[in-house]
Design goal:
197 residues; 6 helices; elongated; mainly alpha
């Protein structure tokens, strides 16, 4: 993780000490979804759509909930970009809950992931070395864009293959976000103990 610059050196607002919460929730959502995709031997189209929809919906809502904790205001450019990414994931998740089919899953899932991942990649580049999540946004953006670009190529192979691609990206992303969340939690505890002393 990248250490943020001091406030005097940066125009980036300081993130909340609670930033670890959405990072760990996002990791949990990704890892649970990834585990389901690994152990579900023969998913149906309906099962694929419902599990994928719940995963994208949960990730989008967690992303939206965590925006204020990043230190960015929702009406600031970075906050609006994160809001667009969270809204894209949430919308894709809701769509997948109601629309079913391998092509629908691949296209809608890829679009939601692509928008959110592009936003994170841009933020990672823009705030590199200045925000505590910059490196995590970079990595998450690359993973998400890779998953989004790969999904449409597996439409013909059916639900198991599509869930495998989406789940593989989710597992890699989940590991990244659990490391970020634990690091943020450790840093928040260290800062709290320094404040007490």
């Amino acid at each position: 993780m990248t250490s943020p610059a001091t406030p005097a050196q940066s125009d980036v607002p300081a993130p909340s000490g609670e930033l670890w919460k959405p990072a760990l929730l996002r990791a949990a959502a990704a890892l649970v979804f990834g585990a389901v995709t690994v152990f579900w031997a023969a998913p149906s189209v309906t099962g694929m759509s419902l599990t994928g929809g719940v995963y994208l919906l949960a990730t989008g809502l967690i992303l939206l909930w965590g925006i204020p904790l990043t230190g960015f205001r929702r009406d600031a450019p970075a906050g609006r970009l994160l809001s667009a990414g969270g809204a894209a994931l949430t919308g894709a998740g809701v769509a997948l809950l109601f629309l079913q089919g391998s092509l629908v899953f691949a296209v809608i899932g890829a679009l939601g992931l692509a928008v959110a991942s592009a936003a994170e990649l841009w933020l990672g580049i823009r705030f590199r070395g200045r925000h505590v999540l910059a490196r995590d946004w970079l990595a998450s953006g690359v993973i998400g864009l890779g998953t989004a670009a790969t999904l449409p190529f597996f439409v013909e192979l059916g639900p198991h293959a599509l869930l495998g691609v989406a789940g593989g990206g989710a597992i890699i992303s989940g590991v990244l976000w659990i490391l970020a969340g634990l690091s943020l939690r450790h840093d928040a505890r260290a800062d709290a103990s320094k404040a007490v002393n």
